[in-house]
Each structure stands twice: as structure tokens, then as C-alpha cells.
Amino acid sequence: MATLILSPEAAADLEEIVEYIASENVDAAIRVLAEIRQSMDRLKDAPEIGHSREDLTSEPLRFWPVRRYLIIYRASPEAVEVSRVLHGARDVEAILSGP
């Protein structure tokens, strides 16, 4: 099983997602966070299940959807490094190509 590594940006993304949803519904925020965390655990067991998106980035990143969010990560047999967790309606390409 691979190790899960969460980048500082991904940790901030999760915090932002939870705060945004919790402003309307705390229980929903808890459920969404749990689903994202479960998906990250699944990626540790099967890091190749995500798909690449060459239309969004030339980086060797994989994408895995959870509800309306995308877990964006790098996969190797040793580790799954989550670089971002973004809402699918955001300009993912611009965010990934930004500084």
C-alpha cells in the first residue's frame, strides 16, 4: 500500500471546502470531507485508478472525482501525493499552471 502525502495546498483546499459547506450545513461538510478522505484511502490501495488530463496539464498528474470535486495527485508504487482538491467548476487548468 502506498503512503498518502497531502501537499500544503491540498490541505488548504480541504479546509476551504469544509468551511464553505459548513457555513450552510455542518453535517454535509462532515460527509463530504469523509467521502474525500475515503477516496484518498482508496487511491493509496490503487493509485492508478485515476485518469490523466492532458487537456488541463502536462504534469504527470492523475484526477479522481468525488462528488463535484477533483482529487489531483501524483502516483507511484510508494506514494500518492495529493497536490490539490478542487471543485470541478473552478478553472482547474489556470490553477494548476499558476505560480
* Total strand segments: 4
Q: Can you identify the CATH class?
A: Alpha Beta
Average pLDDT: 94
In CATH, the topology is named YaeB-like fold
Can you tell me the number of structural domains? 1
**Alpha-carbon distance between the termini?**
32 Å
What is the global morphology?
Answer: globular
Which regions have little confidence, pLDDT < 50, spanning 5+ residues? none
Strand order of the largest sheet: 1-4-3-2
Order of helices and strands: EHHEEEH
Please state the oligomeric state of the protein chains shown.
single chain
- Please indicate the percent range of residues in DSSP E strands (runs of 2 or more): 25-35%
Number of helices, where a helix is a run of at least 4 consecutive DSSP H or I residues: 3
Under CATH, the homologous superfamily reads RelE-like
Largest sheet: 4 strands, mixed
Kindly provide the radius of gyration, computed on alpha-carbon positions and rounded to a whole number of angstroms. 13 Å
Which structural class is indicated by helix and strand composition? Answer: alpha+beta
The CATH architecture classification is: 2-Layer Sandwich
What portion of residues is helical? 40-55%
